[in-house]
Fold this sequence. Notes:
The structure holds 2 protein chains of 2 kinds. By secondary structure, chain A is an alpha/beta fold. In chain A, the strands form 2 sheets. Chain A has a 7-stranded mixed sheet with strand order 3-2-1-4-7-9-10, sandwiched between helices. A 3-stranded antiparallel sheet of chain A has the order 5-6-8. In chain A, strand 9 and strand 10 (about 385) form a beta hairpin. Chain A has helices spanning about 10-15, 30, 40-45, 55-65, 70-95, 95-110, 120-135, 140-155, 160-175, 185-215, 230-240, 260-270, 280-285, 310-320, 390-400, and strands at about 220-225, 245-250, 275, 290-295, 300, 305-310, 325-330, 370, 380, 385. The model of chain A is unreliable at about 1-15, about 15-50 and about 65-100 (pLDDT under 50). In chain A, about 50% of the residues lie in helices and about 10% in strands. Chain A has 15 helices and 10 strands. By secondary structure, chain B is an alpha/beta fold. Chain B has helices spanning about 25-35, 35-45, 60-65, 80-85, 95-115, 125-135, 145-160, 170-195, 200-220, 230-235, 255-260, 290-295, 305-315, 320-335, 345-365, 370-385, 390-425, 440-450, 465-475, 490-495, 520-530, 560-565, 615-620; strands at about 430-435, 455-460, 480-485, 500-505, 505-510, 515, 535, 540-545, 590-595, 600-605, 605-610. Chain B has a 7-stranded mixed sheet, sandwiched between helices. A 4-stranded mixed sheet of chain B has the order 8-5-6-9, with helices on both faces. Chain B is globular. The two termini of chain B are about 30 Å apart. The model of chain B is unreliable at about 1-15, about 15-70, about 70-165 and about 195-245 (pLDDT under 50). Chains A and B meet through helix 9, helix 10 and helix 15 of A and strand 11 and helix 23 of B.
Amino acid sequence: MWWRSASFIRDRQNQNPNPNPKPSSLLHSALDDPPSPTSTSMAALNPNPNPNPISAYYQTRAEHHAVVTSDWLAQSVEAAAGDVAASVGAAAGASKAEGGGVGVIEEFNYWRKKPDLAEAVAAIMALGAVIRSSEATTMNELDIELKKASNNLKSWDTTSISLSAACDLFIRYVTRTSALEYEDFDAAKRRLIERAEKFGEISLKARKTIAMLSQDFISDGCTILVHGYSRVVLEVLKMAASDKKLFRVLCTEGRPDRTGLRFSKELAALGIPVKLLIDSAVAYAMDEVDMVFVGADGVVESGGIINMMGTYQVALVAHSMNKPVYVAAESFKFARLYPLDQKDLEPALRPIEFGVPIPSGVEVETSARDYTPPQYLTLLFTDLGVLTPSVVSDELIQLYV
Amino acid sequence: MDLRRPNRPVIGPKVRQVGFITPDSGSATASTSIPAVAAAATAAGSPPSSLSPVMIPPPRHPSTEMSNPHYHPIGSYNPSEQILGSPPALSPSRSSRFDADGSDFGGDDDESVALSGVGGGMTPKSSLLMRQPVTKTAPPVSETTKRDSNVSKGKAAGPSAAPKEKLTRAERRAAQEAQRAAKAAAKEAAAAGGAPSVSKQPKPATKPTNQQKKDGASGSGPLQPLAPSGSIEKKQGKKEVAAPHPRMQFDDMTKVGKLKKRAVVNQSEARNRVELFRHLPQYEHGTQLPDLESKFFQLDPIHPSVYQVGLQFLSDKISGGNARCIAMLLAFKEVIQDYTTPPEKTLTRDLGAKVGSCVSFLIECRPLSVSMGNAIRFLKNRISSLPHNLSDKEAKSRLQSDIDRFINEKIIIASKAIVEHGVSKIRDGDVLLTYGSPSVVESIFAYAHGIKKNFRVVVVDSRPKHEGQGLLRRLVERGIHCTYTHINAVSYVMHEVTRVFLGASSVLSNGTVYSRVGTACVAMVAHAFRVPVLVCCEAYKFHERVQLDSICSNELGDPDAISKVSGRKDLNYLDGWAQNENLQLLNLKYDATPSDYVSVLVTEQGMLPPTSVPVIIREYGIERLWT
């Protein structure tokens, strides 16, 4: 049956006699179907199947940013921990290759516990450990093992862009060398380990590099608008403050998890003058802003970014007032995705508390992030240098094709 | 995230240097260029937070690397030099890569000279070089075009010649002012003396500026010798970097006369052509076919298969970029099959010339498309790179398998890859719009329908070719729900569309999409309605030329096709008016869509923004194929 326009999807949802708690599940039903009995076999492979519609992406963010809004988080962490334990038990009896897959998760969790480490860097470190501890005897075996480990990591959180991007980039970078074919296995493996360590080190240093590169863009007396909590942006501002630069920061509130509040707290501790705005005051405050600084969850092939909900509207307002929008993002966030519009993403859902009970029959948009097209971005500060959005694709082509 | 592109071994490390990195200039400069404080800081291995933002990181060098093991340079994911075991001074830097590219382009120019010897060549030309012959040797050109070309020449010459000029801008301007003043004075004197008619007044007014522009162009010396006359160019060695050949301009009467003498196909030109498009060939349709058929047994040098393909082009039996390219390559395959090297000649040279004559015959039948130009360039490359010690048989079989591989990898497999990428952007419930009858888009729709995606198609069509009807028929036969409309209604249907899929004849390096006329209109309407526009195009259709409008390079169709409406006998207002001098009919075949209106290019290399075309050309162009 055909409807007049694409909005029939929404219409059909509204007419759905069995109200679904997840609004976009019709579009992406495969993604967030509740775990059915048939998927129990999957659970052994995937140590973190989401028992609730809240994405692992959001859980990790919440953990890192110490934002706890309700007990849903504790529950989901418990569920995830229980699953990991179960899968460890299951894997103990399974084959050796399976053991490698679980090892990577343990390693990953070890690195993830470090407070200042991005999840993607933890994944890179964990993959490096896989190569080091591998018992493979041929290049091919090692390759398969690595792929398996990276798939394991990716399935840990299917919605995290930087995690899957970092895994892919690691494999591309580490195994991409023609010299490998001409050596014996041990030398080749040593080379791989060396490169893995180098990649890990580059990723660890990325934030410092970005902070250094972006100092030229922050001048005395400027006003910077930031949106969301980004550790890269914090590093940039921290370095600028330690250089005795005088600037002012406007922080958005970052509803519903109040990331802006936490960000402003950190900035205030550094002695930077901060003003807090509610999210809807962006346009009001834009005329006194000199530049907009945002982080990114992922940088996609078009050169646009995927970031916390609200970035798109901040960028739109800034663009219409001719203010530059700068994005600080490490290069391991470059992902081979090409969203055409906002709905063309894997949704990452999050809980939203309104403080008052939501009237029955009212839907809530719970997406946690949006896509900002490249034409609204001015420059990207990455550890590869200061790039225009179109260079992102250039880099990705050189690495992947 | 899935790997959308096939894995390919990457041969060498690519060093990308960004940020504050100074060029590799050896250890001597390195030790002096680093500020002593920073060097001390890095040597002590202090945490990077103490790095001052103005510090210039030392160049990559083994000695400095060893002295501070904690230091890591900013850079792309490059395999580091010490890992690959080669000294950094020898590592291919970005600049050396550009050098390699430069020589590649030089070789490419050679090819194109041979290719476009007769006309309608496909190589990139600066507008200056295109225009120069016109202004020099074209007495019958009308005043307006002359002025126009002069203006463009002046504009083009200005910036490119600027660095070579000894005069400063101010001095030049002063000279021009003086000239202008002198002219004005002369004019006034003439006006005082004689009695000029009023109608002639505008002419002297424009003349001085013309003169100045010309002076400016001739003053910019270094460009002058570049304007090639045919004989000089032929004398130049093949290996030398020849000046680019000017594209054939059909408003140049002497050139056209020469061309006619050589031409196999006897064509009479249409009389009333639109002013702006006089540089493009336009022939009266329907006259060539019987003439060619009568010549069939006299045409000795043209191979029958090429002849057949040429006739099919002429009568529009084969149309569409891929179909024409495949037909041409298959014909060339037969030419190679039947080829025997004449005595005292070498295969590489003689076969190249033979293919060249076939190409010029095809050009006479219909101008080449960019995709065909690229395919010919590839074939000529292969012919000229054949080793000399090969026997005829081996060489021929090698060339034939090369052609097969080209068709297979660059066209057939590529379109399959495009289909996979394109389908990933079709969601259930989408309304997809397409224009004309692009073959790749058709297979995307067919495949998406095959995997049970739930979508609807709007086929937009236009006069006079009605290509969309064929597409519509095939889609409806498959059971896809379709809407058919003409381009006049595109703004009406656009509001319900969620994706626009378009094909392309070629994609140029500034991202401009050169495609069937009307495509630009559809893309602009889609952009205005904020509907994503996906252009599906194989990478072998990419070209390094830059084009800003649809005027410089285009193809003119039969003007009768737009003056007559089939099936409407009563609409006869234009009958017999084609010879009227006041009536000019314009039937353009292509137009250029600016890259702003294109959301994504779907190629076999993946989905790319239109800004990435030069990257693909640079990394995986035709020249880089199997070298």
